[in-house]
Amino acid sequence: MAGNPGFRARPRRSDDVKSLRRARAGLVGAVVLAIAIVATGLPTATIGRQRDALAAVDRQLATVEAHNAAIRSEITSLRQRSTIEAIAREDYGLVRPGQRSFVILPGKGAHAVGAGTLGLEPIPADDLVPTSVSAVAPLVAAAGAKSASLWSRTLNELEFWRWAM
Predict the structure, then answer these.
(1) Dihedral sign for Cα atoms in the order 112, 118, 124, 127
(2) Helices in 42-149 by DSSP H: which ranges?
């Protein structure tokens, strides 16, 4: 049988165990090498940072969309005639033709609720309307003293135009 070329001798059992161990060791080594390549080759830290940044941008987008919805609601409200009229009355003191507007100031030392600082600031003297003849007389006299004769007013007017040109 030893001389028969078609017959092969069966390897020994210890050789089978050794080759099996080598194959397993090679497989384990290849798996460890593949894991090392994947772990060092993939940018896992960068991916984690990008996920955090994406979550922050998503939160910011949600905030901006909520703000846009509030602005759209305000725009819709401002297109209504009743809202425009309320703003004109409250903020600008406007009234409809034929109506009168009254502002009631609080007494001295009193502070009206909801009046803000309106009652706390003194009214400038130039804004007050004189209510008696004795209060108007000095104003009329001062105006008359300023405007002398027709010729002096004309000369003043001409002098102005000489300097203006």
Answers:
(1) negative
(2) 44-78, 81-92, 133-146
Can you say whether the dihedral through the CA atoms of 103, 109, 112, 117 is positive or negative?
A: positive
State how far the Cα of 101 lies from the Cα of 89, in Å rounded to an integer.
9
Residue with tokens 């080598």: 22
Other beta carbons within 10 angstroms of residue 115's beta carbon come to 14
Q: Which amino acid is at 73?
A: S
10: alpha, beta or left? (left if phi > 0; alpha if psi -120 to 50): beta
Would the pTM count as exceeding 0.85?
A: no
Q: C-alpha angle 127/132/138, rounded to 5°?
A: 75
Cα diameter, the chain: 156
CA torsion 136→142→144→145, rounded to 10°?
160
Poorest-confidence range of 2-6, 20-24, 111-115, 124-128? 111-115
Please name the residue that has the structure tokens 């409809």.
96
